[in-house]
Amino acid sequence: MDCINIYDLLVFANHGVLKEENVLGQKFVVSVSLYVDTREASKDDDVDKTVNYAEVCKLITNHLQSNTYKLIETAANETAKAILTAFPKIYELELEIKKPWAPVHLAIDSVSVKIRRKRNVAYIGFGSNMGDRKKYLQDAIKLINDDELSYVDKVSSFIETKPYGYTDQDDFLNGAAKVYTLRDAHSFLELLSDIENKLGRVRQIHWGPRTVDLDILLFNDEIINSEKLIVPHIEMHKRDFVLKPMMEIAPEAVHPVLNSTVSALYYKLNEA
Length: 272
What we know:
alpha+beta, five-stranded antiparallel beta sheet
């Protein structure tokens, strides 16, 4: 991944534990490394295909001047979140905020906090077998995009499939999507559950009919086994209606428990 570096942006703002710092303000020095794929922009010499560092500088300045934080740790975290939210082409960043001449009553040049933040990559499987199935799935994708911390990068074709488990129900439309999100896995699960509820999902029969079903299949390369969430999805390697859409959008994605790619799992399932 390529990197755009911004060094020593000077911002006068009001952050600090002491009252005088909040009222009188002081200088802060910000540096940030932005991890971006610049190949397409460099090929076409087109600023719209990369990240405009002048706009990033404006955002940092406006954010730090329009908010007041006691801790520069908080200032750094919230500034990083604001950058990643505003610039979807940035996959990851490293940000440092320096506080020159920090008021510690000792001879000190500066204090700084450096953080690294990146988008999480989630793959989700989705399905519907009630009402206008296609609209339910499209509405679910739109609602994910409406979340300020998440956006949908790729969506597979919708495929018609027979019901799994409980078979006395209508056929499904199924698919998969790649989502970038600043949420952690459990917060992302809460988002998906809220969307299911908004779209009228009722849980009465296990594997039964539903307006929409949204499952986290993979989340980065994390292995999660909690009361509310198991990742990778415990059944994904057994389900053709999951692996076939995933083949469209992420054939090289790796199942971190089985240590196999999606394509390997798909061919293994279909050879059985």
